[in-house]
Amino acid sequence: MSAKSELRVLAVANQKGGVGKTTTAINLGTALAACGERVLLIDADPQGNCSTGLGIGRLQRKKTLYDVLMGEAPIVEAAVQTSLPGLDVIPADADLSGVELELGQTARRSYRLRDALEPLRANGPYTYVLIDCPPSLNVLTVNAMTAADAVFVPLQCEFFALEGLTQLIRTIERVRGSLNPRLEIQGVVLTMYDRRNSLSEQVAKDVRDHFGDKVYDAVIPRNVRVSEAPSFGKPVLLYDLKCAGSQAYLRLAREVISREKDRQAQAA
């Protein structure tokens, strides 16, 4: 993409936990940056796993998403550079868990993140913003979906996967109906795929039958190197570039970029 490409804001979301959501946010963001994009990752989960997985220690989190949502810092001041050029992160910490209570019934409380991102849409340095959502429906998830152009859905290849996806689609429809009429599903990526397991194949077939070309061709395999990388504070591409997981995320990033170019060409 050229430097003049419009900013694309994606909420990485699934209301079911343990589907590889944070892992996908970290590694897709890293792979996009490795492909030449300028990426801002927003850690919207009070656990701060996205920040930790990128090697951003607690002492480096001078400003966090909490400060941004509470109006205490502009988003550019909260951005922390990661070890990979082209990839920045807005970190999170436990303070974020208090946002719902502190905002209460404040006016435009669901639009806090969207308002904060407006300067980046006008003249920011990024081509992608990825928001790592918590695995529940709360004010943080609603803020992410209100700010996003689309929802990027990691989906684990297991029996209850489609059940969680049904809940997510209901949430997207509610947000679209009341807060963000342009919100759509960007795509679904199958994660933790095990070729030796017939259940993985059946889930993949069911998802592709239901969502058609919204499902990415790239599939993220179950891979021990992907699981190990966060404990070293690294995305898997920096931990082991040649492993199957890294190569899968690079394929996914290239597919995301290609589809985005097609979308922009059709919109022009």
Automatic annotation (TrEMBL):
Q: Which SUPFAM superfamilies match?
A: P-loop containing nucleoside triphosphate hydrolases
Taking the record's annotation, the residue ranges forming a coiled coil are none
**Where is each AAA domain found?**
8-185
Record-given protein name? ParA family protein
| Organism annotation | Caulobacter hibisci
